[in-house]
Amino acid sequence: MLPITYLGLSLGSRPSSEGVWVSVVSNIEKRLSPWKRKFLSKGGHLVLIKSVLNSIPTYFMSVFRMPIGVVNKIERLQRSFLWGDGIEKRKIHAVDWASVCNNNTSGGLGIGRMVDKNVSLLAKWVWRFGFDRNSLCKKVLCAKYGIQVKILSWDWKSNVSSSYFIKAVANVISTGNNFG
Fold first, then answer.
1. Does residue 145 fall inside a structural domain?
2. CB 86 within 8 A of CB 79
3. Dihedral (CA of 118, 124, 127, 129) sign
4. DSSP code of residue 158
5. Less crowded by CB within 10 Å, the N or C end of the chain?
6. Cα dihedral angle (68, 33, 83, 65), rounded to 10 degrees?
7. What is the CA radius of gyration of the chain?
8. Which residues pair with 9 in a beta bridge?
9. CA distance 103 to 112
10. Span between the terminal Cα atoms of the chain, in Å
């Protein structure tokens, strides 16, 4: 691992290890100061979760598959902040977290699940590779990793290199949203 960080991630580190994601989780924890927990309404908590807490890991999720342990930590922080749980005491949750994460038209609060966001952000790369024929990013990555076949073909996954990014995108192609 290099001693350099870029956009909060240590260069040369393995994004599959939970230790790499510590900076993302700590950035989320910094935004959850005790006064916000105490003095904001439920609506204020919801706005903070949707606008700030969900946006912090977006860049990382767009290029790396988030480990399920990190997903659980982030969603636990969101849950405890939404329901007003403190360090000393826990409150009863009126609705299960899966219902809260549903979109507004389905009766939820529209927070969304981290795994689903991660899959959709990685699937965006599938679209870029498959349908944006003249993309500079596509040309660079295909040249770097030696990808010669179409991205949506069955042979594509067998041609991927050891790049964690390419493997994460290949996982979206072959298994859809099966990240667990």
1. yes
2. no
3. negative
4. G
5. C
6. -20
7. 19
8. 6
9. 7
10. 26
Instruction: Answer yes or no: do 142 and 105 share one domain.
Output: no
> The tokens of 37 are what?
């927990």
60: which residues sit within 8 A by CB, 6+ positions away? Answer: 8, 9, 15, 21, 24, 66
Does this model's pTM top 0.70? Answer: yes
C-beta atoms surrounding 138 within 10 Å? 18
Residue 130 has pLDDT above 70, yes or no: yes
Same domain assignment for residues 64 and 15: yes
Domain co-membership, 105 together with 125: no
Pull the structure tokens for residue 163.
């790049």
Are 53 and 111 in contact, with CB atoms under 8 Å apart?
A: no
Interval 58-80: pLDDT, tens: 988 988 889 999 999 999 999 88
Token output for 92: 């009863």
Does residue 22 sit within a domain? yes
